[in-house]
Amino acid sequence: MSLFKLFVRMTLITILTFFVAVSFSFNSIFSSTSVKSLLKEVNIQSILVQMIRSEVHALPAIDNLPSITELSLDLLLNIKPKDVRTYLGNEIPGLSLYHTEIAVAGQGTNITNLPIESPPPIEFIEEIDDYEEEYDKPTPKTNNKNMAVYIYHSHSWEAFKPLLQDQKSANSSSSMNEKANVITVGDKLKQDLEDKGIGVVHSKQNVTKALKSRNWNYNQSYILSRETVQEAMTSNNNLKFLIDIHRDSQPKNITTITINQKKYARLFFVVGKEHKNFEKNLEFAKKLNSELEKKYPGISRGVFIKGKSEGNGVYNQDLTERALLLEFGGVDNDLTELYNSIEAFADIFSGYYWGNSEI
């Protein structure tokens, strides 16, 4: 357990103890029946959590408060009585990876098929200099007031096996070729949104090369992309929607679905909970997910929530209330399946953007 987390827990326990003590002492301090009756209506737990949530945003909303027993077990032992994974998560290696919270479960989604993140293999990093500069394009500069959406890729190396040419690259599922990795998904989404009248800026930054140039590792990719996003937002105040596009590492049977005899690469949303905009971004993701499922049932694997113990926990989503980490398909999806999914998302997103949907 980190020192910060330990400090937070001890602070919460101290405050909780104080409030419980005060609530009991009220009965002996006040003799007035009316005052005692009034105090009985005061929900000490609600007040306590409301105060703490102003600083610790990961705590649940008041209408989803756990019981005192549940809260105490979580604070003291990191155990949630209603989640069996927390009983063994610190004892069985690898089980902590399954702590990702499922906010909205898509068709067939459960803890056995949660998203899997795949870092670039070491040999891929070492061979970076063998690639052409063609795939190292800077972020476009723009002051166009109509540019509202910023598309970028914190893990630009994530590639799709059907789009890779050589077998060695296919085995690693990583590539700096923007025609084979998630950048090609961003290109298609940009085109589709622009066709619907929405201004888009698309960053094609070669994250792998940029990390190596600073002697940074994979874990610092979100620090790098954050700089890129902040620079873009500084130069254009109208960028209100951030879309970080990734792909999953689950096999094709999990990441593909047929809807009306048409194959789609299933998508899903990841929301970080370690920041002030967590609830707003979660609401945004849920709305888009709901509309997608209405028109394309089964296309979404759901909405997932991650804290720092399951990943970055922020994903640059603190920069706006409309930030998405959106994963299209998996390593085995082909271009047709990806394009079908992108067109579906662009359809729903444009409805949200122009206010034409039920959202």
TrEMBL record:
InterPro entries: Spore_II_P. It comes from the Bacteria. This is Stage II sporulation protein P. It comes from Novibacillus thermophilus.
